[in-house]
Amino acid sequence: MEPRKTLYEQYLSLRSRLTRLYEKAGTRHKTSGQPGRLPEAMRHSARPGSIPAPLTPCIGRDRELAALKDLLQEVRLLVLVGPGGCGKTRLALELAASTADTFPDGSWWLDVHDITDPEAFQQAVASTLGVLPRPGRSAVEAIIGRFRSRQALLILDNCEHLVQPCAALAEAALRACPGLRLLVASRERLGLAGEVRWSVPPLARPPRGIRLSVEEALVFDAVRLFVACGRAVSPSFMLTAENIQAVAEICQRLDGLPLAIELAASRLVILSPREIANRLNDHSILLAARRRDAPSYHHALRATVERSYHLLSDPERRLFNRASVFSGGFTLEGAEAVCAGEPLRPAGILDLVCRLAEASMITVEENGRGGVQYRLLEAMRDYGRERLAETGEADAVRAAHAAYYEALPRR
């Protein structure tokens, strides 16, 4: 005699049956010459998925979106990387919305920033897809079963703290599901074969030291974002000849980071653009968000930097702290001369710089002479200086920095 099922097992069995019936129902509609397809008028509204609708328009990113749309048709694993607050999430949302018709079996979105356990991560993905693993079958198998014969897009957001489980799921799903595309937003790449890493750049901002007219300034996306966010909190705000230089300075000093610009603009309720520019050094006080719907790590720019910092190893943190003494770009030679010292050996600086670049904690730029240089964004540098002061190494590192540049002309 078959053993009696528990209530939970009965629930799983019933849900599984309903899911199969629902999926079969979608294949019974026929159009002329196209069995198994929904009528054209019904296809978009009936397409499954979980892409959230943004509440505000996307400013800029037209070039990036055009390039990414083409790229998403060519590759199966696309990873958007960049520092916290650079706009990875918004860019991924816009890309998902603009390519919805490309994926007839739907597009799904999952933000995993609050998930820390690998098993909970797999369960969350399965739940987002509306599938439950049958008894004796893992969540990964259930996910594969959902996508095996479908042309669909899965977007995973804020994955930097779950790189290993995300990579394991991506490899298993992409191998078993030829019609699946995976879009990942993370501060670090997954490190898989076939992965394409796309660095999300900051918004275009005015160059330093150039006076601009209002019309000239509005060409830059960073300025347009500041104006849009400013009007959201103070509808009377306008870009004028009197405040344009202060707005340009804000966008420059915040490195064109969308989150930083949004948080700065929120202070227009009580401060003028010039007062905001004058107080930018106090990131922890000035750049505090007032939005109730923002995730916790976006409540302040400092929280965003802190989240990335705590994902680093001890040697990586030590190098990051010491590199904050550079006020502009620096070379590998400079990092080896200034940042080496117990417990960091000069021979190990290269690997640590590479790791910081991969974690989006430093940016890599061409130096105009056929080489590259590295740079910490302003918010990153301020945070690193605070941490350096706490370690008691600040004076020694500044002395090494001064000695290096004093000897540079002779070399």
Describe this structure in words.
The chain is α/β, with parallel strands linked by helices and 411 residues long. It has three domains: 50-199, P-loop containing nucleotide triphosphate hydrolases (Rossmann fold), CATH 3.40.50; 214-305; 312-407, Winged helix-like DNA-binding domain superfamily/Winged helix DNA-binding domain (Arc Repressor Mutant, subunit A). It is built from 19 helices and nine strands. The protein has helices at residues 7-26, 40-46, 62-74, 88-98, 118-129, 139-147, 163-176, 214-217, 221-233, 244-253, 258-265, 273-278, 283-286, 301-309, 314-323, 332-339, 349-358, 378-391, 394-407; strands at residues 30-31, 34-35, 77-81, 107-111, 152-157, 180-186, 195-199, 363-366, 372-375. The strands form three sheets. Strands 4-5-6-3-7 form a five-stranded parallel beta sheet, with helices on both faces. A hairpin with a 5-residue loop joins strand 8 (363-366) and strand 9. Helix 5 packs parallel to helix 6, helix 6 crosses helix 7 (163-176) and helix 15 crosses helix 18. The longest helix is centred in the N-terminal third of the chain and has 20 residues, at 7-26. The radius of gyration is 25 Å and the shape is globular. The model is unreliable at 1-12 and 18-46 (pLDDT under 50).
How would you summarize what this structure contains?
The protein is α/β, with parallel strands linked by helices and 411 residues long. 48% of the residues lie in helices and 10% in strands.
Write the layout of secondary structure elements.
Layout lengths: L6 H20 L3 E2 L2 E2 L4 H7 L15 H13 L2 E5 L6 H11 L8 E5 L6 H12 L9 H9 L4 E6 L5 H14 L3 E7 L8 E5 L14 H4 L3 H13 L10 H10 L4 H8 L7 H6 L4 H4 L14 H9 L4 H10 L8 H8 L9 H10 L4 E4 L5 E4 L2 H14 L2 H14 L4
